[in-house]
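Before relying on records like the one below, remember that each one covers exactly one chain. Contacts with other chains, cofactors or solvent are not represented anywhere in the record.
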Amino acid sequence: MRATLLLVFVAGCGGDGLNNKEMPDMTPPPPDMATLDPGVISKSTKSAGEAETHVAVAANGFVAVAYIGIYQGGSNNGYVFSQNEGDTFNAPDALPATSNREASDPVLATDAQSNFYLTWVEFHRDQQGQPYDMHVQAARAMAGTTTFGDVIEVTSNPNGQDAYDKPWITVLNDGAVMVTYARTSTGGIFAARSTDWKTFNTATIVEDGGFRNLVFPCQPSDSMTRAYVTYHAGGGIGLRWSDDGGMTWPDVNKTAAAEMGSRPAFDDPTCAATGQEVWVTYGLSSDPFSTANSAKLDSIKVAHSPDGGKTIDNWYDAQDSAAATYSLHPYLIREPNGALDLVYYAGSSDGDAMGSYRHARSLDGGKTWPASLAIKTPIVFTGSRAGNQWLGDYVGLAWARGNLYTSYTDNSSNIFHVAFYRTAEPTM
């Protein structure tokens, strides 16, 4: 549970954010709608502020955006639907966690039938504010509807002793829904599959006593069986793969994605793949690890594998140094035509009031990255997880029908809210 509310952290390492789950100070009242950027879509009476967002786009033109909704003393999963590609959005809604728990880390996916899926972490707090009784859950919104329900449990935690963090969700090409997550109490990472939306069957990716977290899945668009995950592995970035759609993860199917001797930040890596090519993006930072702040990234790296993950042949620099010195929370996707898209926050220093949220696009497989474009400026560039300008710990990015869709946190008013942006991509 990485973000503002949860700091699921394991001794000496980090979780996505909490084990002293810190809530941001929500003292200032929500701003009047007139002060908000027109892209803001999350403001409602169901939360005082919203951040940590993700987006998914269905074949029927529906768009869903999810986020953490922060309210006095707790958090829930908020979401909002568009039925017309994001031209307009319905009123925001909230999906309460089960058994009166709090919720965090929402992530979305959609399938070929235009059903939407949402996964998250939920938990109780003890009197000291520490999380316990943690579970990873998932919910579904059937095609043509705009409400999440149909909740099933991804993990079981009968004694309440296990700690979980940062699930990601994807729908594989064979139609199976796969949720990846970390069990921070043991350092293991897992992939859970459901083919019937009744139960999840869980496979261990790796659990050997080492620290791993932030496990992100991707699959080549032209494969029914190969699936990849990339993840933070203490001092490095790992890449592993399955050849049976996530049911098994042989230990020999692995490689180190980051360059030897580099300092990968504790920030979600992401990946994209087609054929035998795999791209992994991650950030480097000279900042020390902190549960109170996300590390400022000195650079964004894109690692490329030409042989299905066996080797990395190049590490490309993707951060636009002419736009700003630092970045946060990069997210990479690949378009069907081969272009790579990257979004991230940028700023010249921590607290930079003229920061921005940016989009970069590479047309040569990540080798070169032309000047990035500002999607939103100004944004206060900050890694702080406390206060009213928290940017969350990740953003949302999707591509469909020639358009790029992204959701991000806009903190340019006196509190954070979630914004949405869509743009038509030029043909190559």
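Confidence is low (pLDDT under 50) at residues 3-23, 25-36.
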